[in-house]
Write the C-alpha cells for this entry.
Amino acid sequence: MTADDFLDTVRDDNETALSRLGSSKALYALTGGEMESDAVLDAAATSALAAAETYEEWTEDTGVDCIADAAVVERDQYETVVDDVADHDPHGTPAIQVYLRGLDDDVSRVGGLVGAALAESKRATQMSGFFTGEADPQTASTFRGYGGSLDDLRDEAVAALGDLCDGDEDWGRAAEAAGGAIQAAYDDYVEKLEAMGVNPKPVC
C-alpha cells in the first residue's frame, strides 16, 4: 500500500461517517442542541484542549514530527477560541480523544491522527459556516484556517506513515486506527442526536 492508497482507503471505508460528521447535524450534536455562538465556541474549546493534551502526552515518548505539530496546532486553536469563552470549563473528554489515548505505538497513533484530522476538519467547516451565518467573519476565518491546518496535518501524517510502515500489516494497523478515530466521533454523534430524539441518519 502507498500513502495515497492509504488515504483513499480510509476515506472510502468511512465515507458515510465522514459525510454525516460534515453535516449541520454534527454541530447540533456537538453543542447539545444549543445552536448559539457561545455554545459553539465552548464545544470547540473543549475539543481543541483535549486534542492538545492527547498529542502533548504523545510527544513525550515519540519523535514523530507530525504529532508535535498537531499538539501545537490544537494548543494554538484552544488559546485562540477560549479567549472568547467566558469561564470556560471543559466538560468531559470527547469520545475521539478517549479512543486516541488508548493507542500506544507510533504507527497506530499517526494513523489515529489521520482519522482525527479528517473528522475534525469536517466539523471545523461546519463551525466556519455557522459563524459566517452569524455575520462574524473573523471567527469564521479562524475556523476556516483551523480546518486548513488540520488538512495539512492529515497530509503530514500520511507522509509520516510512509516512513513508519514496514509492510501491509503496519498499513492495516494504521488504517484500523484511523477508522477507529472516525468511528468514535461518529458513534458519539449518533448517541447524542438519538438522546435528543433526532434521527442521525439523513444528511442535511
About this structure: The chain is about 75% helix and 0% strand. The radius of gyration is 16 Å. Residues 61 and 106 are 9 Å apart (CA to CA).
